[in-house]
């Protein structure tokens, strides 16, 4: 009897071991099937390590950005469009991690966990993706950047559609200059595989004063009546925060108009490290965001161990502050939208090999408001004042723009001695609810360099979208 009992326990143990192994095998298959199916050795998907069997990628108008013809991946007929949309479409080798051809690889190849790549073998291609970007607008933004490195992004702050995403440097995907990229000693192709809009982070410079202004509105009850004195510097802790001019006595509104470092250094100190941290946390700093399957680089703000001087510099957008351009676009969009940001999206719809729409994008509000309605309204008025009373509406004819420039000082480790030029803003026209962010790396002044790029891009966007 005891012998039979021992045998039964051994049998139970074997059954448990078998079930455990089966579960482990299933889990391993579930978590790795995608990677196994997508390996570059899979001849159904790749030829010589290059993705070839995939669906068609189009822009919002239906213009072809990428397709498979006779077993070869081909791209838009226009060289400028191919170059301008490279970082969104992505390369077929997978170097550009945020490109659709990599981040949405399952979708464009038609892979799924149940059927694997069966449908590719059956239909000879994957699913089709329609993107929200406009190829013509991307080409305009790309040309507007000239010879500069940087990024431009435009989105509809009411619906969330990203209509322009451009990153530079770039190259013609149809005729990749492999030798020039691999042997580049000039820096012309530095970071060429990085989509600066999604994956870049930059010192924000004076564009960060929008955030400091929001913190002041939320924490200093009489901020709109306060005045600040600027002698060209603000002394603190035996040192000083330098200002670009001697502005004399300025109001809160005028301080933002002229981008007075002295005033905003004082404002940051008056708000305090704790409240500055609360404000930036509410806006998503030090947090992860995703645009569909594309993960954004984190914006960073940390004054945990900051001295008074450091806190003052953080308030003017320097110190260790870093901002992702797409995140900044979301912040300005939230202001334009009354305090709540609309989630940006890049993929409009996915259509299967049989013509069925398996995914269609919808407008989605972010879970929490970035600003209160009151704060958003005050910021709207301040940003409109910047353009109307300082930059001049002539810089954006007919667009009724609100915005802020930035001239961000950077160290040699960040790319050189010349500052990054920023502009972030939006049109307040009811028939044209679009926001824009521009970063020109080592470009110089935001007003002289970034505004012309923003204007050219937004004028084209108005031509395409305004009612």
What is the number of E strands?
19
Shape: globular
Q: Distance N terminus to C terminus?
A: 89 Å
Rg, Å, rounded: 26 Å
Helical fraction equals: 25-40%
Walk me through what this model shows.
This protein is 38% helix and 18% strand. The strands form six sheets. The protein has a six-stranded mixed beta sheet with strand order 5-4-3-6-15-16, with no helix packed on it. It has a five-stranded antiparallel beta sheet with strand order 8-7-19-18-17, sandwiched between helices. The termini are far apart. The radius of gyration is 26 Å and the shape is globular. α10 packs across α13 (273-282), α10 crosses α16 (373-391) and α12 (261-271) crosses α14. It is α+β, with helices and mostly antiparallel strands and 467 residues long. It is built from 17 helices and 19 strands. The model is unreliable at 36-48 and 112-116 (pLDDT under 50).
Provide a short characterization of the protein structure.
Helices cover 38% and strands 18% of the residues. It is built from 17 helices and 19 strands. The N and C termini lie far apart (89 Å).
Map the helices and strands.
Elements: H1 2-37, E1 46-47, E2 50-51, E3 57-58, E4 64-69, E5 72-75, H2 79-84, H3 86-89, H4 100-103, H5 105-109, H6 118-123, E6 128-131, H7 135-144, E7 150-156, E8 162-168, H8 178-182, H9 196-199, H10 209-219, E9 227-230, E10 233-236, E11 239-242, E12 248-251, H11 252-257, H12 261-271, H13 273-282, E13 290-291, E14 294-295, H14 308-315, H15 325-336, E15 347-351, E16 357-360, H16 373-391, E17 401-408, E18 420-427, E19 434-440, H17 446-465
């Amino acid at each position: 009897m005891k012998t039979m009992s021992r045998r039964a326990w051994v049998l139970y143990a074997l059954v448990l071991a078998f079930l455990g192994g089966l579960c482990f095998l299933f889990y391993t298959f579930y978590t790795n099937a995608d990677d196994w199916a997508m390996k570059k050795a899979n001849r159904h998907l790749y030829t010589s390590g290059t993705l070839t069997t995939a669906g068609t990628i189009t822009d919002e108008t239906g213009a072809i950005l990428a397709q498979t013809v006779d077993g070869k991946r081909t791209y838009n007929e226009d060289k400028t469009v191919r170059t301008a949309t490279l970082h969104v479409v992505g390369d077929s080798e997978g170097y550009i991690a945020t490109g659709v051809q990599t981040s949405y690889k399952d979708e464009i190849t038609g892979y799924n966990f149940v059927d694997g790549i069966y449908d590719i073998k059956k239909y000879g291609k994957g699913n089709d993706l329609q993107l929200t970007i406009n190829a013509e607008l991307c080409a305009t933004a790309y040309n507007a950047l000239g010879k500069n490195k940087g990024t431009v992004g435009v989105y509809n702050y009411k619906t969330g559609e990203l209509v322009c995403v451009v990153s530079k440097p770039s190259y013609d995907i149809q005729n990749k200059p492999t030798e020039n990229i691999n042997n580049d000693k000039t820096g012309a192709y530095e970071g060429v595989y990085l989509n600066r809009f999604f994956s870049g982070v930059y010192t924000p410079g004076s564009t960060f004063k929008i955030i400091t202004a929001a913190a002041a509105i939320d924490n200093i009850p009489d901020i709109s009546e306060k005045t600040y004195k600027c002698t060209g510097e603000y002394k603190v802790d035996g040192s000083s925060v330098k200002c670009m001019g001697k502005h004399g006595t300025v109001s809160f509104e005028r301080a933002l108009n002229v981008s007075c470092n002295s005033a905003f250094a004082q404002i940051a100190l008056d708000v305090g490290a704790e409240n500055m941290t609360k404000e930036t946390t509410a806006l998503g700093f030090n947090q992860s965001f995703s645009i569909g399957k594309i993960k954004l680089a984190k914006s960073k703000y940390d004054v945990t161990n900051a001295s008074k001087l450091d806190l003052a510099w953080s308030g003017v957008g320097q110190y260790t502050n870093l901002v992702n351009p797409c995140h900044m676009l979301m912040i300005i969009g939230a202001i334009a939208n009354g305090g709540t940001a609309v989630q940006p999206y890049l993929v409009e719809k996915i259509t299967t090999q049989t013509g069925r729409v398996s995914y269609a994008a919808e407008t989605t509000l972010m879970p929490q408001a970035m600003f209160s309605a009151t704060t958003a309204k005050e910021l709207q008025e301040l940003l409109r004042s910047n353009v109307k009373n300082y930059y001049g509406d002539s810089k954006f004819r007919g667009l009724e723009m609100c915005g802020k420039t930035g001239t961000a000082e950077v160290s040699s480790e960040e790319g050189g001695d010349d500052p990054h030029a920023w502009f972030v803003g939006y049109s307040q026209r009811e028939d044209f609810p679009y926001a824009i962010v521009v970063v020109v790396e080592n470009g110089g002044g935001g007003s002289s360099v970034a505004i012309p790029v923003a204007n050219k891009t937004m004028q084209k966007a108005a031509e395409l979208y305004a009612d």
